Request: fold
Amino acid sequence: MVNNIYKLHGKIKAIGTYVGSIPGGFKDSNMTLSKMVKASSIKLSDLEQSKDRVTPWLKSLQVSLDSAQQTLDTVQDELAEVQSIPSQIDHWMESTNKTLELLNKRLMSLKGFVMRGNVPNCTGKKNVSSNILAATGNFVNPSLDTSDVLYHQVLDLEEKIKILENRVVGAGVQLGNLVFQSFDDLLVWVRVKVPKGRFGLFVDNHSFLKFFSISGHIDTEVGTAAFSHSQRAGFIT
Amino acid sequence: MSFKNLFPPVFGKGGASSLDNLECLPAISNGDKWHNGSTGILHQLMQNMNNVSYQLDSSIEKVLKDHPEAWQLAIDCVTAAKCFVIVLIAFISQEYATWQTRGFSKKDAWQIVSQIIRRIFEDLQSARISTRTPMILLIWISRLLLSSTLHYNVMMSWKGTFNTNSMPILMFHL
Reply:
């Protein structure tokens, strides 16, 4: 009985000691929590500062993205335009090939006339000519009539005028300080001198203005009205 | 595509047919939007001029450095376009001020200036479209530079007489 009382007393004493240590534990926990709250508040203020720093950067990034989007739209337009080039070139090549075939046939026909020594004239008669130069007017064959010579001289002059018109009047192209006699010459120049698909770097007045990004512009009246509204609503600006 | 738009985005996109009844530029409805103290499209154009020029020059230098003739032509194009834009900016500001000093209100003066600008870009567009041929798109390059040169002169003629008959003839034939 006495032993039990001693044991019980010892347990009660131990419990009393444990209970006495509880306030100290609460105090330590309170200190720890205070430190954690202080650290969290410091981190929070750091995050707010970071947010303040990041916000303008995000805005500028948004503007840059808008500008990049516009550029991308432009590039897509130009790309669609460039993609249509092959079909156009093919069409042009087909027509050119047909023209070349016709010219070849004409040349073969003329060659046949020359080889046979026959040159057609305006009257439909066939005169014997030993030299093709007679047909060009550079050499007058005594066997030809005066009218035939004149006729061929006129043909020659007409051909020369056509060539001159094509080269000087009809198809002249000027690019800055560069002058091309025809679009064919320009085509050759572009193929030789310009990298493939790099036409977007050649700008004119209209396309040059497309590079300007005015999306960030806010009219003065609009800005003033927005400021006034925000003041009325109680926002601190 | 820029060939379908009468105006560049700075002045407001849109087809020529859809803008017949508009009295002002689509993106600049009054003179204050063009120039108002230290704000307006005028200032933004001038501020961005160097950036755009640098961007284009850098790209040209990078892409066409091994192609001297193409490089020179591209540089000429940019230079001519810059000259045009600078002259256009000065022209718009001067005309706006001039019409106001002649007794017109701000609104009327800006409408007059807008019609002049509109006419300039109509001529510019007609030159760009008329020189466009389905045969070959590469000719596009020549049209671009020609229109740059042409409309710089058109600007000058507008500035002098407002008579379209005095505009230089486009020496560009297909």
Notes: The first strand of chain A starts at residue 118 and ends at 120.
